[in-house]
Design a protein that fits this description.
It is a single chain. By secondary structure, the chain is mainly alpha-helical. Helices cover 79% and strands 0% of the residues. It has five helices and no strands.
Length: 157
């Protein structure tokens, strides 16, 4: 196998382990926030939701640069990068994620943008709840898609 593809495949697999830990922190923080009513737990949940998407985006950026040969740039590069991951690139790679994952991840991308640009005490818990509750299922779906992509790279190498 080409060593570059092997490194990317290994990186995807290790990042998935990190994502599992972030997901656990989201779930535990949300439980504590609901149980205690302490808004500081919500700050932690917001930060971990930010981290959840940022970690996935880091994987997508690695794929874009090292497989697609494209460095994401421009004002809307975050949105374009996510969109590219849902597209097949003829004779290079299959789609990394499904259109369904793209649609759902776009909500997390938008939330990550909000977390970066406002104070956490201005984030509405009701909006976070939808993301928190959807994260486990979305993670399983994206994890399976990323592992399938890692397998594709291993076969291509």
């Amino acid at each position: 196998m080409k060593s570059g593809l092997k490194r990317i495949s290994n990186r995807i697999r290790s990042e998935i382990i990190e994502l599992e830990q972030v997901l656990q922190r989201i779930e535990e923080g949300w439980k504590r926030a609901k149980r205690s009513g302490d808004n500081y737990y919500l700050d932690g949940v917001a930060l971990n939701l930010h981290g959840f998407y940022s970690e996935l985006e880091r994987i997508f950026e690695i794929i874009a640069i090292n497989v697609d040969g494209i460095k994401p740039e421009g004002e809307s590069w975050h949105q374009e990068l996510l969109k590219k991951m849902a597209e097949e690139i003829s004779e290079i790679r299959p789609a990394v994620i499904s259109n369904s994952s793209f649609q759902r991840l776009n909500d997390y991308r938008g939330f990550r943008h909000v977390v970066r640009n406002i104070y956490t005490f201005n984030i509405e818990p009701a909006k976070m709840q939808k993301l928190v509750e959807g994260a486990p299922e979305l993670f399983r779906q994206v994890r399976d898609e990323l592992l399938a992509f890692a397998g594709f790279m291993e076969q291509a190498g």
